[in-house]
Design the sequence.
């Protein structure tokens, strides 16, 4: 399941119901703190960064023991969240899942349901206008699980294809140079005047929004809780809003039925 972009007020109804109905709630401690009002009476299993496998196995083990479990991710669990790892681990452990697989529900070991949330790029985009109105790609700069060489290749391909880019994990304390290196890759095929939005802690306390350009990103203001949206060749900023045209005004005449 997933919580919203950072606060229970933005949570989808199905996710809220899952939390209320769960006996055990598992998640990164920071995310559990964000929904503390909904999980006060639950058995909580929390841990810190880079303990994802441990958390997912704890959720699976509790479910196998007959408990109703909610595994919390931020944003959407299927976008850089925990949903994929749960399936990876179930597969590695040889577990049989109810639902779409070949096993009747009575013969399955587990029922796993992925509930949609609000991805960080959606939350960030809504705060700055409509920058994702046309084709876009999401790329994480974290090289913890993906080789940097592959990230660079994906960035270059997306930039050359003129995708709007939503960049996750743009700048960490241990890898502060990655965003600057990524911008160097993008500048091979993008103008330095390309509009850019930086949204830190979207829809949470201490939210920060900054509109700038690809050649003038204030690197020191960007952290791992930021999403960086880089426009395409047609993206513009107007009245403090960042907009990527879909192409309606190229095809239709204003006032036309």
Sequence:
């Amino acid at each position: 399941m997933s919580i919203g972009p950072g606060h229970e007020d933005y949570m989808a109804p199905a996710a809220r119901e899952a939390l209320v109905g769960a006996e055990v709630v598992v998640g990164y401690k920071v995310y559990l703190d964000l929904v503390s009002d909904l999980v006060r009476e639950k058995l909580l299993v929390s841990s810190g960064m880079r303990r994802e496998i441990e958390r997912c196995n704890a959720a699976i083990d509790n479910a196998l023991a007959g408990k109703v479990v909610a595994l919390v991710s931020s944003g959407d669990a299927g976008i850089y969240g925990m949903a994929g790892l749960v399936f990876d681990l179930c597969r590695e452990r040889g577990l049989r899942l109810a639902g779409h697989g070949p096993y009747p529900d009575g013969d399955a070991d587990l029922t796993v349901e992925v509930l949609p949330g609000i991805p960080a790029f959606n939350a960030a985009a809504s705060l700055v206008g409509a920058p994702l109105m046309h084709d876009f790609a999401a790329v994480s700069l974290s090289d913890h699980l993906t080789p940097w060489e592959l990230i660079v290749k994906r960035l270059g391909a997306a930039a050359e294809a003129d995708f709007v880019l939503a960049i996750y994990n743009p700048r960490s304390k241990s890898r502060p140079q990655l965003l600057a290196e990524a911008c160097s890759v993008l500048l091979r095929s993008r103008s330095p005047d390309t509009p850019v939005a930086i949204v830190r802690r979207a829809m949470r306390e201490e939210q920060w929004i900054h509109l700038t350009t690809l050649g003038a990103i204030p690197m020191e203001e960007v952290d791992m809780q930021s999403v960086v949206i880089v426009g395409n060749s047609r993206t513009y900023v107007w009245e403090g809003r960042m907009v990527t045209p879909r192409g309606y005004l190229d095809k239709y005449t204003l006032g036309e039925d």
